[in-house]
Model the fold of this input.
Amino acid sequence: MAEAMGVDLTTWQGWETGRRPLANMKAGALLEIRRRLLALGAEPHVLHLLDPAMDADRVVAATIRPAADAHHPLASWVHTRDTAHMIAWALNGTVPPSLADGAARERRGPVVKAPLLPVPDRSAFFARLRETAESALRAGDDGLLLHRQALYLCSYDRTPEATSWMAHALHSRRDLTSARGWSPRWATARSTAAALVRLGDRQPLLDFIERGLAGDDSAEAANLNYWAYWLGAIREPQPDDGFMRHGATNREPVRLLRGLATGLHQAPAYMDLYVHSLWALLVTSPWLPLADTALAESLTAHTARLLDHNGISPRARRELSSVHYVLRENRT
Done:
């Protein structure tokens, strides 16, 4: 491989092991590596993940070994789902969904199965990330983005002590989930409600949908833009949460529909939020099922099955019925 890439063996081994981080390379040299790998048959969607992988390295390094007077990268950039998945891969070994279908090839000699951080580094990462979240909270509005994102990544720590800390941190801000409509803390309220679901508390999410979303056009638009960025339907990097209130001129609605439909299948704990978001998207763009008829067929069948089940909140049932109706009408 080193010969094919035109580099010496120690350089290639350094890239593979992380001893020589790709992020430290000159931009032109990194671009040449991407183009050469593509010519050699690398899968384009895997090459695309080099960017979130380097962002993940940057977040991990800045947390474990913070530079004096340096801003944390999570304070001035909204991290993406791909980056979060890369960080989770390093912290708990969970393979990113975008790589899960790749066939593992046999290699000569021992090969690590995941880019797991050593245990001391993982412990240091989570300890300092909790400190970062707490200090950002004390900073008031200036620390909103950093606090929200640090708190989200703290949820990857599955130790009992960390779970207890997380529960306390989230429940101390539970009142945000009952706020009406849009506010500068809207994104924090949404993240708090979603994180509490992971702890087994579904009610704050229902409260957030009822009060923080339903009936408020700005909040509904913010929710769809939030999803679009997270699911890759807004591709431009964002420096803060302000983009959520902007118009959807750069949002890819078909990609957003596909992402929400996939989430409805894969994350049943968040069904109420996925259903509401699908309903809102189809209200604003009722033509969407015509853009992907195969997806519309699959989603029609899935919504029908969901409507046959008990345990759905009254609002979710009404909105799911509307989604199912729009899908069927566009099919006929």
Observations:
- The first helix runs from residue 2 to 5.
